[in-house]
Specification:
Strand content: 15-25%
Radius of gyration: 60 Å
Strand order of the largest sheet: 1-2-3-5-4
Keywords: Cytoplasm, Exonuclease, Hydrolase, Nuclease
Number of strands: 13
GO biological process, one term: DNA catabolic process
InterPro entries: Exonuc_VII_L, Exonuc_VII_lsu_C, OB-fold_nuc-bd_dom
CATH topology of the largest domain: Rossmann fold
Order of helices and strands: HEEEHEEHEHEHEHEHEHHHHHEEE
Structural class: alpha/beta
Number of helices: 12
Largest sheet: 5 strands, mixed, barrel
GO cellular component, one term: exodeoxyribonuclease VII complex
Pfam family, one: Exonuc_VII_L
Number of domains: 5
Helix content: 40-55%
């Protein structure tokens, strides 16, 4: 695999403009540094396989990034496993870096290789699902509502795929004027993940796009693995534009379904959920307008009947009716007040007359008028007992007609 070139000495490893290395020395040093990396376990996707009788050459690609490296092996157990693999299979391999000095190329010598099994893939997907849940990326409150009438729909799908036809045709049936901006990408294979991520980011950055549909038709579990790839799933979760995951059929549940703003069971279902049905919406509008019209007509009719009832009242037939009614009430009130006042005054007059008679009956003058007299001393004291009067004492006598002075004898 490498030339039998003599290894350069330590002194020759120091180079300068005046003392450059030879190509042989440089490639030898490069081989030395590369082989120091040792054995490494790597995971990737088989892209190319060129098996021969006692050796195979191929390429191992990254699961997401558009990167890869050449692989080869002469080991019988590896050759046996390679014969059972196909392009697109996900594998885990133990490789040792090797540098081909004659061609100046690096290749990985495969020491062991195995296909990643379905159970292992399911376990990895479940671990990723739990991690997404732990990070809160599947919470309902994170999901954005879809626009009722999207101005422009972004579609990520395979070129000329059934999924593309289903979305476009069903959308046009529901709304003939609907507009799409389509991004064609691989939907499986070693380049699918990176291309899908680029498409999501491009449409998300497009200010005209209101909603994005990520669509793929049905396939095997392995065919849909790219839609459970962590980088793809996180690209969907980080998308600022509302995004719909429409992958496979009803029973297919890739992880993009968990983090998307809406899950559609099929590409056709995505069209039904994203694009409004113009015919149905027009029917709803017509029904709403009819209901509004009936309510307005009913309200107007009720108001007209109310006005008609008001107009039949006497006050509208003769506006003075209400004045006459109020005048009659005032007249009756005035008569009542006058009667009650007069009656009150008469009662009070009778009471005063009675009290006056009582006062006169008790008056001393009335007694004097009957011939009685009141005798007082010159000091004004009342004389009621003749024994208390001395002979010759001057007294004052009050009669009905006046007073006179007398001398007691």
């Amino acid at each position: 695999m490498s030339d039998d070139q003599e290894q350069p000495s330590a002194e020759s490893r120091v180079s300068s403009e005046l003392s450059p290395w030879s190509v042989a020395n440089f490639t030898s040093s490069l081989k030395d540094w590369i082989t120091r990396l040792g054995n490494v376990w790597v995971e990737g996707q088989i892209s190319q396989i060129s098996p021969k009788k006692d050796v195979f050459f191929g390429e191992l690609r990254d699961l997401v990034a558009d990167k890869g490296f050449s692989i080869h092996s002469r080991r019988p157990d590896v050759l046996q496993t390679i014969s059972e693999l196909a392009a697109g299979d996900r594998v885990v391999a133990l490789v040792h870096p090797d540098f081909w000095e004659r061609m100046g190329k690096t290749s990985m010598d495969v020491l062991a290789i195995r296909k990643v099994g379905l159970g292992e893939l399911l376990e990895r997907i479940e671990r990723l699902r739990q991690q997404l849940i732990k990070e809160g990326l599947t919470l309902a409150e994170r999901k954005q509502p879809l626009p009722f009438i999207p101005n422009l729909i972004g579609l990520i799908t395979g070129a000329n795929s059934d999924a593309e036809k289903d979305v476009l045709q069903n959308s046009k049936l529901r709304w003939p004027e609907v507009r799409f901006r389509v991004q064609h990408t691989p939907v499986q294979g070693d380049k699918a993940a990176s291309e899908i991520i680029k498409a999501i980011q491009a449409l998300d950055a497009d200010s005209e796009v209101d909603v994005i549909i990520l669509a793929r038709g049905g396939g095997s579990f392995q065919d849909l693995l790219v839609f459970s790839d962590e980088q793809v799933v996180r690209a969907v979760a980080n998308c600022k534009t509302p995004i719909v995951s429409a992958i496979g059929h009803e029973n297919d549940r890739p992880l993009t379904d968990e983090v998307a703003d809406l899950r559609a069971s099929t590409p056709t279902d995505a069209a039904l959920k994203v694009v409004p049905n113009v015919v149905e919406e027009r029917k709803k509008i017509a029904i709403a307008l009819e209901r509004i019209s009936l309510r307005v007509v009913g309200y107007v009719q009720n108001q007209l009947e109310l006005i008609a009832g008001i107009m039949t009242r006497p006050v509208f037939a003769n506006p003075f009716t209400i004045v006459d009614e109020r005048a009659l009430i005032i007249s009756q009130f005035r008569s009542s007040v006058q009667y009650q006042t007069r009656n009150f005054l008469e009662k009070e007059q009778l009471q005063i007359t009675g009290l006056r008679g009582q006062v006169r009956a008790l008056s001393p003058k009335l007694t004097l008028d009957r011939g009685y007299a009141v005798v007082r001393t010159t000091k004004g004291g009342l004389v009621t007992d003749p024994k208390k009067v001395t002979k010759g004492e001057q007294l004052r006598v009050t009669l009905s007609g006046g007073e006179l002075g007398v001398t007691a004898d």
